[in-house]
Amino acid sequence: MTPELLTPGQVPLAQLERIYRTGAPARLAAQTRPAVEAAAARIATAAAGKEAVYGVNTGFGKLASLKIAAADTATLQRNLILSHCCGVGEAMPRDVARLMMVLKLLSLGRGASGVRWDVIALLEAMLERGVTPVIPAQGSVGASGDLAPLAHMAAVMIGDGAAEFGGATLPGGAALQAAGLSPVVAGPKEGLALINGTQFSTAYALAGLFGGWRAAQTALVTSALSTDAIMGSTTPLDAEIHKLRGHAGQIEAAATMRALLDGSAIRDSHVTGDSRVQDPYCIRCQPQVTGAAMDVLRMAAATLAVEANAATDNPLVLSDGQIVSGGNFHAEPVGFAADMIAIALSEIGAIAQRRVALMVDPALSYDLPPFLTPNPGLNSGLMIAEVTAAALMSENKHLAHPTVTDSTPTSANQEDHVSMAAHGARRLGRMVANLNVILGVEAMCAAQGIEFRAPLATSAPLARVVARLRRDVATLGEDRYLAPDIAGAAALVASGALAEAAGTDLPLLLS
Asked: Looking at the annotation, which residues are catalytic?
């Protein structure tokens, strides 16, 4: 696979999503090398000098006042990496771990970290040859950077730790050797540059964002299906209503739903003579809710696009050669973005679950059979599928509670305010998986409802969506073992196949 060429400071989210989804390797653009090497030379000069420079010839954190002899700088960096390998829990998913490595490349490529080009070349080669460090996912508080998880990545680079290669988990040095690579000996500041930064939190946040946006796109499709299934009104989708409010996501959501429902014979059948004056909010206010969530996801995306391209270790080598300590490692922006994504995911699922509840309730579904089964009583139909959706909706509400508002002092009170961005971002994967199931159940219910409206037909785009669903999930007649159907529908949401089947333009995350 051809490596993606990265220009640090300018890499768009679309390129990062492509790397994340395809597993493509990545390399820095050649023009980044002079700045990287200039910073490395400045660090080498400082390491040979008598002046104490944090992270170069001193201890770390609370031990920063202790000067380290020049002969011990390599040992200092190795000890730093190994002592910080304190992660616990399950390993990061491989695709997220590789994205983290790409983000570290981007940070080092800004030319402010002071690492030699050899360090960057090894990261690039690990991505290209498929050496993925095994990184426990718990242990970071999101400041001073994602120390523990990034240390597990760095450990492999110096020939320690563990890595996955060729489908097997090997000691880090053995994995490098099997891939035809050699470890580096960390020079002055290089261990610190590798373990200090927000790349773990940012990788998880981006993975949640990419999955969340795909779910938001699918939610527009499933909500249009549900509207037709319960013979809902399209009047609330009128363009002028949304233009008068002015929110971009709301306007786009309404426009998308109008396009999806255009030409529906089901809708045309009740434009006049419908005794219902208004639909419930879960039908009538879909653009206002899902559209608002889209706006929030875009706000988070804008923050993460900046962070993905940022230099976030410490100290940094400035353009005038100064080596200065700051706080770019503090992941507060990522923590805020992760909380925003979590809230948006929760709300998309909350209104979708209400549409599911509407469709299975004969008092509200406008003449659909109870629980969408042709023979209620003997059969329970989609009764418990709705309960599953309700359970996951409630779980996501709990998970959406903010994490960035929490903090605890660490490192003997030197690091006395932290972001908690790491687990704030990590929970997003679970939330996206829950949301995919909720939307999958909605698709199952809505398709069943539309089929009950025969001989009236839905629109052409929605008919294509139903047809795509039916390739993996058959119409429900007599009760059957439903768990594989729910899993299959959720997989169609996660892959984007359900939304793509509509064949209409869907809103983009960032233009």
From this structure: 54
